[in-house]
Amino acid sequence: MTLRRQIIWSLLVFVAVSVLVVAVRPLVSPDEPRYGIIAAEMAESGGWFSLRMAGFHYYEKPPLGMWMMAASISLFGESAFAIRLPSAIATGITALVAGWLAARITGRRDVGVAAFLVQTTTMGAQVLGSVASLDPIFTAFVAVTLAAFYGACTSRGRAQFGWLAFAGVASALAFLTKGLLGFAIPAVSALAFLAWQCRWIDIIRMPWIPLFFAALPVTPVALLLHRSEPQFWEAFLFIEHFRRFAAPDANQHTQPWWYLLVLFPIGGIFWTLLWPRVYVGLRGLTAASAPSDGTRFCLCWIAAPLIALSFSKGKVPTYILPLYAPLAVLVTLGLVCAHESGRVVAGKGEKVGRFILRLLAALAIVIAILGVEAVGLPPLWSSHSALRLVAIAFALIVWAEIDSLSWRTRDTRLWLTRTATAPIAMLMLIPFLFPDAFVRQTQLPWVALAANESALVASRTLVTTASLGHSVSWVTARRDILIVGAPGEFDNELEMPDDRARIISWDDVAARINRGDELSLVVSKGEFERLHVFGSLPAPSDSDTRGDLAIIRWK
C-alpha cells in the first residue's frame, strides 16, 4: 500500500466516522443545547463577550469554544450540525497531532498516517469528539500544546524557542476554551517527562517562554471580558474551578477516585484488546533510542493528568478525551514495531475474536426476527428496531471479514490500515444506534416541543425547569423563559437581580394561574404533580403529555 493511498484512505475514514454523521442523532439535554443556545445568542446579538444562556448570565466557561459554535451557526443556521461541526473539526486536528507526533518520534510518515487512523478509530475519541461541547475543542488545543512542547524538547536554538512560543499560544487557547486545565494538563505532563529524563535545568528554564506567549492572547481577551462581564472572573475562577476540584455541589458530578482509571481503557476498547501486543512491541525499543524518548513522553501525557484528575471530586467522562492522542501514538508504535520484528502473528486469539463477532451478528439477526420484547430486552429505539439490529449484524460481519483479510499480508502498513479499518462500519453506525426509547423523554424532548413550538413561541409567559430550560430555549429561540423550582446552573450564585427575577417558585406559578395569567408550562409529569398541593386550579386550555414530559397552557 503506497503512502499516498494510505493518506487518502485515512482521511476518508475520518470524514465517514467523524463528520458525515454529526447531525444524525438528536441533541441530548442539557449539555448539547446549553452550548447551542449560548452560541445562538452570541450570533443573534453580536455580543461576543456577553455570555448568556437563555438570557441568564453564564460564567462557567470562557468564550472561545462558544465563539466557534456561534460562527458555525452564522454560516449554517441553528442546527445540530452547526453546533457539532467545530467539535468534528477539532477531533480531526487532534488526530493530525497524533499523526505528527508519531512521525516526529519515528521519522516515518507512514507511521504518522497510521497513528492518525488509530486515533480516528478509537471509540472514546470518536464518540466524545462528536458531541456539541467544549471538550473536543479543548482537547485539540491541549494536543497541539503538548506536541509543540515535544518539538521543543527535540530541538535546539531558534527552533526550540519557536516550538515553546507555539506551545504557549496553544495553551492560552485551551485556557480560553475551558479554563485552568488548559495550563494544568500540559504542565503536569511536561514536568513528569522532564523529571523522567532528568532534565532538571530545563524544568526551571523552559516554562518562561510559553508563559510569556500564553499571556499575549489571554490578556486582551480577559480585559475585554471583564469590561463586558465584570463578575465573570470571580465566578469562573473561584466557584467553577476551586470548588469543583475540592467539593462539587449538586450541579456537578461526584465520582470515586478510580472512575477515570476504569473509563479510560473502556473508551479505547477497539485498541485496548491489543494492549498486550503493544507492550511487546514497545519493549523492543532500546532505552537509548528516540522512539523510547517519545514513548516516555506519551506515557507522561497519559499518566500524569490521569492521576491528577483522579484527585478531583467532580469528574465527567470527557476528562479522558485529551489522553487518547498519546495512546494512539503508543498503540501505533507498539504494533508497528511488533509486526515488523515478527512478534505479531495470527493465532487462536484472532480466530476466537472473529468467532465472537460472527456469533453476535447471528444473535442480532435472531433478535431482529423475534423482536426485542420477545427475548426480554427493554425497548431501545422508538422505531426501526429490526432494521437497526440487521445493520449491527452487517457491521459485525464486516469487522470480522476485514480483520481476517488483514492477516493475509506481511506489509505492516497494509496490516495496520486494515486492522484499524475493520470496525469502521460499527463506528459509523454508533450515531444511528442512539437508544432514544431508553433515554428519558426529558432528555430528548424534541418531538413534543416541536409539536407545540408555535404555541410556546406565542405564549406571553413561558415557564420551565432547569433541566428542560436549555431545550425549551433552543426550540423556541426564546431568551425570556422563567425557571421554576431549583435553578440548577441557571443560578451563578452572584445574586444578580435580572437573573433572580426570572427564577420563581411553584407558589408563584400557582398564583399566576389563579389570577388568570396567560402561561405555558413545560415540565416533567412528576414535577407537574407539585401543583396539586395548591388545591383546585383553573383547568388548562390545552395540554400535551408525551412520555414523562408535560406541556400545559392556560390562556
Approximate strand percentage: 5-15%
CA radius of gyration is 26 Å
**Which stretches are poorly predicted, pLDDT < 50 over at least 5 residues?**
none
Annotation, overall tally of beta strands: 8
Number of helices: 27
Mean model confidence by pLDDT: 90
Helix and strand content put the structural class at: mainly alpha
**Total individual domains:** 3
Shape: globular
Offer a concise description of the structure:
The protein has 555 residues and is mostly helical. The protein has helices at residues 3-19, 31-45, 64-76, 80-106, 109-120, 123-128, 135-153, 157-178, 181-196, 200-205, 208-228, 232-246, 259-267, 269-272, 275-283, 290-310, 324-340, 348-370, 385-406, 412-421, 424-429, 446-451, 453-458, 466-476, 497-500, 506-514, 525-528, and strands at residues 52-53, 56-57, 462-464, 482-484, 503-504, 519-524, 542-546, 549-554.
Could you please describe the fold and organization of this structure?
With 555 residues, the chain is mostly helical. It folds into 3 domains: 312 residues, no CATH class; 87 residues; 113 residues. 63% of the residues lie in helices and 5% in strands. It has 27 helices and 8 strands. The relative contact order is 0.11. The mean pLDDT is 90.
List keywords for this structure.
single chain, two-stranded antiparallel ribbon, six-stranded mixed sheet, mainly alpha, 5% strand, 555 residues
Secondary structure layout:
Blueprint: H1 3-19, H2 31-45, E1 52-53, E2 56-57, H3 64-76, H4 80-106, H5 109-120, H6 123-128, H7 135-153, H8 157-178, H9 181-196, H10 200-205, H11 208-228, H12 232-246, H13 259-267, H14 269-272, H15 275-283, H16 290-310, H17 324-340, H18 348-370, H19 385-406, H20 412-421, H21 424-429, H22 446-451, H23 453-458, E3 462-464, H24 466-476, E4 482-484, H25 497-500, E5 503-504, H26 506-514, E6 519-524, H27 525-528, E7 542-546, E8 549-554
Parallel strand pairs: 3-4, 3-6, 4-5
Antiparallel strand pairs: 1-2, 6-8, 7-8
Helix pairs in contact: 1-5, 2-3, 2-24, 3-4, 4-5, 4-7, 4-16, 4-17, 5-17, 5-20, 7-8, 7-9, 8-9, 8-11, 9-16, 15-17, 16-17, 18-19, 19-20
